Amino acid sequence: MTNIGIQAAKYTMLVLIILYTLSTYHYLRMKTHRGRNVACGMQLFCMFALHLTGYLAIILYTNETSMVYFYLVQVLFFLLYLILFRVFYKKASRLLLNNTCMLLAVSFIMLTRLGPERAVRHFIITAVAAAVAMSVPVIVRRMRYLWRFGWIYAGVGIVALSAIFVFSTVTYGARLSFDIGNLFSLQPSEFVKITFVFFVASMFQTSISFRRVFVTTAVAALHVLILVASKDLGAALIYFIAYLLMLFVATRSYFYLFGGATAGSLASVLAYRVFSHVRVRVQVWRDPWMDAQGDGWQILQSLFAIGSGGFLGTGLYQGMPEKIPVVRSDFIFAGISEEFGGIFAIALLLICLSCLLQFLWISTWMDGMFYKIIAFGLAAVYGAQVFLNVGGVIKFIPSTGITLPFISHGGSSIMSTFIMFGIIQGLYILKQDEVDRIEQEEKLKQRRQTLYAQGYETSAEGFGKPGKRARRNPSGRRTDQNG
Fold first, then answer.
1. Contact 348/17 with Cβ under 8 angstroms?
2. What angle do CA 387, 389, 392 make, to 5 degrees?
3. Residue 135 CB neighbours (<10 A)
4. How far apart are CA 276 and CA 298, in angstroms?
C-alpha cells in the first residue's frame, strides 16, 4: 500500500510541476492583467498541491505525526510570505514571487526526505532570510543615491573576503566560511557578489572611459584573486563571468569581451598548473573511473542516481540519494533527478530559466545605466550559479562546489539569493512607479485637452478646475464672460 501511494504521489507531482511550468511561460506570453492573473492562480494551485502531495508521501512512508506539524508550519510560512509581500508591494513581480515559493517547496520536500533535522534547520534559516529580505525592495525603491557608494561597496567586499584568511575553516580543501558563535557559519563570498555587482554598476554609471574601465577591472581582479587564493574557484568563476558580461553591457565593446574571455582562459590554464585540487577535478571530470573509489566516487554516484531515476524517477524513498557525497548542497539536483525523475528536473530548470528571463527583461526595461547594470549583473550571477551547479552534477563541466539557488541546503546561499531577488523586485517596483507616473501625466494631459476643447480654462496641474466660461463672438474669436 505504501509503495502504491508513493508511486501515485510521484506521478501527481510530475503532472503538477509540468502544469506549473506551462503556466509560468504562459504568464510571460500574456499582455493583459487578466491573463497573467489566471496564470498566477494556476501557479499557486500547482505549488500548494505539489507541496501537499510530497509531504503526504513522506508522512505515508515515515508514519511520523511530527511531519504533519512541519508541513503545516511550512504552509503558514508560504501564506504569510505571499500575503505580506503582496500587501507591502502591490506592484511586485508575481512571477518571481511564485517561482521563489515553488523552488523552496521542492527544496523542503527533498531535504526532509534526506533528513528531517537538517530540513528543520534549513526551514528556520529560510524563514529568517525571507523576513530580512522583505525590507530590500523598499530600500531600493526609496534610496535613489545608491550609485554614489561605489568605493564603499568595493572596500566592504575586499575586507569581507580577506577576513576568510583570518577566521575561516578549511572545507574540502578551500577556505569558504567561518563559524559565528557555534550557531551557524557565514560564507562571505555569497554576499560579496551582491556588493561586487553594485560596485561595478556604480563605476560605470558616470563614465566608461578607458581609465575608468582599467581601474574597475583592477579592483574586480583583486576580488577574484582573493577568492583564488582561498581556493574558492567556483565563486571566483562567478565573479569573473558577471564582471565580463557587465563590462560588455556597459561599453558594448567586443574588444573587452573577447579580451576578457582570452584572459580568463589563460588564467584557467594557470590555475590547472598551480592548484593540485583543480587538476584532480579536471582529471575526474575527464575520466572518473580512474579513481572510482576515491575522487571519482562523487560524480559516479551522481551519474548513477540520474541514470537510475530515468525520465519518471523512482519515487520518494525509493532511490539512494544519500549515497551521493554532499547531496544536500552541491549535488541536490542529482537526488531530485533520481527520485522525482528527469522530466521533473528539466521542468525545475525551466522554472530557473524563467527567473533568469525575468531578470534580463527588467534589465532591458530600466532606463538608468546604474539600475540596468545591476539587474543584468544579478542575472549573470544567478545564471552562472545555476549553470555551474547543474553542469557539474551532470558531468558537463568539472564540479565547482556551487550551490543551487533556493534549493540547496546552505544558510548563506539562501540569504544571498533572497536579497538578490529582493533587489530585482525593488527595481521592478521602481519602474512600475515610473510607468504609473507617466500614465497619470498622459491622463491629465488628455483631460486638459478635453476641457479646453469644451471651452474651459484649466489649471496648470490639469485637474479640471473650471475657469472663466469662454464663448465665441460673431467674428469667431474666443472671448471671456465679460466679452
1. yes
2. 100
3. 12
4. 18
223's grid cell = 576580488
Distance, CA of 190 to chain centre: 12
Give the pLDDT confidence of 33-83 residue by residue, as tens digits. 888 899 999 999 999 999 999 999 999 999 998 999 999 999 999 999 999
pTM over 0.85: yes
Note whether 82 and 101 are within 8 A (CB).
Answer: yes
Residue 170: all three cell numbers together: 578549511
- Between CA 83 and CA 87 the distance in angstroms is 6
Q: Which amino acid is at 262?
A: T
Cell digits for 246?
557587465
State the Cα angle at 12 between 10 and 18, rounded to 5°: 105
Residues 6+ apart with CB under 8 A from 156: 192, 195
Are 200 and 435 spatial neighbours (Cβ–Cβ below 8 Å)?
no
The answer to whether the CB of 70 falls within 8 A of the CB of 116 is yes
What is the rounded CA–CA span in Å between residue 422 and residue 150? Answer: 20
- What's the pLDDT tens digit per position in 209-265? 999 999 999 999 999 999 888 888 889 999 999 999 999 999 999 999 999 999 999
Q: Write phi, then psi, for 184 (nearest 5 degrees).
A: -155, 165
Give the number of other CB atoms < 10 A from CB of residue 144: 11
Task: Report the C-alpha gap between 441 and 262 in whole angstroms.
Answer: 49
